[in-house]
Amino acid sequence: MTHILAYTDQISSAPGGSIQVKVSCDGLDHYDARLIRVIQGDVNPSGPGYREEVVDLDLGGPFSGRFQPIHAGSYGIAEGAPPLNMGKSFSMQALIWPTLPGHGPQTILSYEDPDSSAGFKLYLDTAGALAFQVTDSQGDSDSISTGSTLFAQRWYLASGEFDVKSRTLTVIQVPLVSTPNVHDRAKDSKDVTIGTFEAKPDAVIMIAAKSGSVHPAVEHFNGRIEAPKLFARLLDDYEKVNPGTAKSRDLIAAWDFSVDISTDRISDVSDNQLDGRLVNLPARGVTGHLWNGDEHCWTNNFDHYAAIHFHDDDLYDCEWETDIEVKLPDNLKSGVYAVHLQSGSEEYYTPFAVRPPRGTRSAPVAFILPTASYMAYANNRIGIDVPETEIVTGRLVQLNPIDLFMQTHPEIGLSFYDVHNDGSGVYYSSRLRPIVQMQPKQIGHLGGVGSNLWQFNADTHILGWLEQLEQPFDVITDEELENEGDQVLDGYKAVITGTHPEYYSVGMLDSLQSYLNAGGRLMYLGGNGFYWRVSFHPTLPGVIECRKSEDGIRVYPPPPGEFYASFTGEYTGLWRRNGRAPNELVGIGMVSQGFDCSSPFILTEASRDPRASFIFKGVEGPVVGDYGLSGGGAAGLELDATNHAWGTPPNTLVLATSERHSDLYLMTPEDMDDPAPGLGGTEAEIIRAEMVFFETPTGGAVFSTGSIAWCGSLSHANYSNDVARITGNVLKRFLDPTPFPVM
Q1: pTM recorded for the entire structure
Q2: Tens of pLDDT, residues 507-520
Q3: 654 is in which domain, residue-wise?
Q4: Coil, strand, or helix at residue 605?
Q5: How far apart are the first and last CA of the chain?
Q6: Are 649 and 676 in the same domain?
Q7: Separation of alpha carbons 462 and 481, rounded Å
Q8: Residue 266 near residue 67, CB atoms below 8 Å
Q9: 566: left (phi > 0), else alpha (psi -120 to 50), else beta?
Q10: Which of 314-328, 375-389, 694-708 bottoms out in mean pLDDT, i.e. has the lowest?
């Protein structure tokens, strides 16, 4: 079990900067902290062994352990509401599309005095019926329910009112579409004897939740809410049953969620301008009750996207307080570092990159740390919640303490490989929370037999190889690629990717493409790269959006009408569907995946081309990489191959290709136009990895391995092997400033 968790405020900093570490301990009184440089995170005894370098820097401590909670669940909040009292009738109304009715009380709209708790809430009760509750200044409450359970994923007009003259509570639920023999239209009223209340000016209005005593928000609503309104009067009979007809007379607030969709703001379009903010990033850019399929992009018809989808397990920022501030020495070299927290046998690593100062470089090589992909996989439940994991890996899943921790602590947030509690897809993922799998020493589930590493820890195989070569290198993260453009790579003789740079934004792609256009040299040492399009939020740090539209390997497809990112309005999905297939950038693109065993490469006739002679100096062949920590071979897990129709440059040399993959390797859905037998690894020619090389028109070059497993073979025989030799040969030539010939 994990009793210590942490995350940092930034994913990278330059020497002389600072990193704030936010720590939570469960049952630990004290812990120690030290700064380490991560060299090799693989603990497999068959490999080179775990390696770290302790930085001589006093971080203070020992530190007192304290528990900092995670408050998951999204909602809207508007503070400083105008006074509302029970000396005058009032009513409220909202359009709702519930997704989990009957799963506990779920608040739609609430109003509460922070001192006396007096106020009201419109909500779904434990049976999933619409209910309305009023609490007076003495704490006495009364409520009314329709007693009719709402259907999931069905639009309703929900209303509640308090009639001061008759001292009556009324609640009404009206389905927007009537269905024969479905009796979910309901209304009920009740006389009450509770006292009065008058809220103070600092009263809080919440949407999709209510204030809690221990947690800032409780009773989270699951589903979509649109056009919530609050009136200082009663609605007439017509207004109560017809959406959008309520007049603005005595209007206290009317939130229009079609405004500012790309932000975390909610706008009150009434004269009171009771604007608010969203907490924990509920889904925006989702279809509302007016959507009819005429328009599929929210930027072209805001009224059709006037809803917000709230979830009780949304999480953006844990908002923990800082426990340790790490002031990085001015002479600290670039690399991947971590603050190592330890208390007895309990330990936790919170990694970050030390990058060179902005506008400078301290080494001839840049390694791009694929932090967007780390966020995409952050805290995924692939090992324990995805039933087909054992099938696709061909072996029993071995659960580790991290798996068990996530199973018992769902509040830690989700990945793009999970679904929300209501079954809807996860559109956003943040690094402002503990990412328990983004640590050295961690073992995954999809990394093949052997070390079974994935994402961050698999990338430490590259760090260990560069360290063994004594090759100076800088570390650049995806966020620098996004925020600083092509300038961040300017001047590097060679750029190296991680093993699995799957998630890329348009800014990141532009940075890489500009680097190549200027004569740069790129070593793509992985597979399944540049696959999904992501968007960074324009103002909120440390969060990305990914909607897996159309096709591709995915857990959940966005519903119709939701293929455009709420952060930016960009079309989403595969990069090849967006007109920028990875083949154009690196010569190859994803064709297959399988997670049992990896295979070797077999050199092709093109490997003897004089253009590639530098690559195979000292390599005998024809078999390369029939060994490795990632499945026992250099070609495996996820495979890329050439496809000229998708943009593979015509001057591309296919240097080697893999073979003998098992039938657990299947072709990708986007290539499977007509499902038919014979598509397994032993049968289909498409299932292969291809190692490629090509020159660019400006004297640069690209080398791509086409396999996630490639770097797991680098350390074999103490780095004395053909995989390490080929990779080293490429790096050596790429560091040579002599331009590649353009014929």
Answers
A1: 0.96
A2: 999 999 999 999 99
A3: 476-531+575-735
A4: helix
A5: 60
A6: yes
A7: 20
A8: no
A9: alpha
A10: 375-389
